[in-house]
Amino acid sequence: MGGVHQLPAGGPAVVAHAAGDLRIEDVPLGTPAPEEAVVEVAYGGICGSDLHYWLHGAAGESILKAPLVLGHEIVGTVLQGAADGTGPAAGTPVAVHPATPGPGAARYPADRPNLSPGCTYLGSAARFPHTDGAFSRYVNLPARMLRALPAGLSLRTAALIEPASVAWHAVARAGDVSGKTALVIGSGPIGALAVAVLKRAGARRIVAVDMHAKPLDIAAAVGADDVLAASDAAAIAAVEADVVIESSGNHHGLASAIQGAARGGTVVMVGLLPAGPQPVLISLAITRELELKGSFRFNDEIDDVITALADGTLLIDPVITHEYPLEDALEAFEMARNSAESGKVLLSFGATG
């Protein structure tokens, strides 16, 4: 069990109050439950869902009904271990698995807890009361969420572990990609991380697509063999990919994914399209016998990502393009929404490593 420290009363946090209303305000720490550790946060990566809560007051069908501390892509150091003796001890650098699976009325496969209907996620307004996130200087977290980081892995690089796990899960949904041609539609952070995972998994050729030059430069830096403009429909169709990762999150990207897939190929949809009906080239998917697969969050892939980062087989550092101190959070969010100029934007909470 980690030692008991004099804990801070709280600290600054990034809180979304409503659409367009993002604030940095002090949030009390509270007394940790016996199964909770106190974590001093070092870095937090700004995710698309964080941007949606700020810009729209909602992320998909998850609507803000009360102020919400944002953030689920976080790393830091255990300040005080859990009183019940579980999890990492004080002083341990950790990444965070932000999900809490939970049962519900709907059925789901027992080996896929990411699909459990009662699952909650840090920084999510999917349920009420909302589940506060961890864009905070100090946070109490269940010890089961924490993953100890190996010596030599910087906390800055480790800030990508959560989104890299999303990408790892998406690539795994495609099956064995070794020796295959892969197409990635949308080269933002998740798409770029998917490129890196595909490279490690032995894809023979990886083609990345985006509307902007900066994301394509990042994709090339982490392993893409070729890059294409999203407007070049003919070139995308000519790829004839065995595996397509659709990470743009819009129906135009999904159309490109279907058009760029080889007959009998697999399209993994990790980009979350808006709620409601969407136009899809479904007749083409049928006549080509494509497999369309959804991909949602991740399960234990986080442990595989940490191992791959530790042994140097997963190259992801180029995905990080900007870092801002907590007090400049609004500027950081503005940069993160500018997909033409940024990859992953990090907030620094002051505890570096």
Write the layout of secondary structure elements.
Elements: E1 10-18, E2 21-28, E3 36-45, H1 48-56, E4 58-59, E5 62-63, E6 68-69, E7 73-80, E8 93-96, E9 99-100, E10 120-121, E11 138-142, E12 146-148, H2 155-158, H3 161-173, E13 181-185, H4 189-200, E14 205-210, H5 213-221, E15 226-229, H6 233-239, E16 241-246, H7 251-260, E17 261-269, H8 282-287, E18 291-294, H9 301-310, E19 320-325, H10 329-337, E20 344-348
Parallel strand pairs: 13-14, 13-16, 14-15, 16-17, 17-18, 19-20
Antiparallel strand pairs: 1-2, 1-6, 3-7, 3-11, 3-20, 4-5, 7-8, 8-12, 9-10
Helix pairs in contact: 3-4, 3-9, 4-5, 6-7
Summed up, what is this model?
It contains ten helices and 20 strands.
Query: What proportion of the residues is helical, as a percent range?
Result: 25-40%
Instruction: Kindly estimate the percentage of residues that lie in beta strands according to DSSP.
Output: 25-35%
Question: First CA to last CA: what distance?
Answer: 22 Å
Number of E-state strands: 20
Instruction: Quickly give the CATH architecture of the largest domain.
Output: Alpha-Beta Complex
Q: Radius of gyration, Cα only, in angstroms? A: 20 Å
Query: Which regions contain 5 or more consecutive residues with pLDDT less than 50?
Result: none
Biggest beta-sheet profile: 7 strands, mixed
Q: Give the overall pLDDT as a whole number.
A: 95
The total domain count is 2
- Note the overall shape: globular
CATH topology of the largest domain: Quinone Oxidoreductase, Chain A, domain 1
State the helix count. Answer: 10
> Secondary-structure element sequence?
EEEHEEEEEEEEEHHEHEHEHEHEHEHEHE
SSE class: alpha/beta
CATH level 1 name of the largest domain: Alpha Beta
CATH superfamily annotation of the largest domain:
Medium-chain alcohol dehydrogenases, catalytic domain
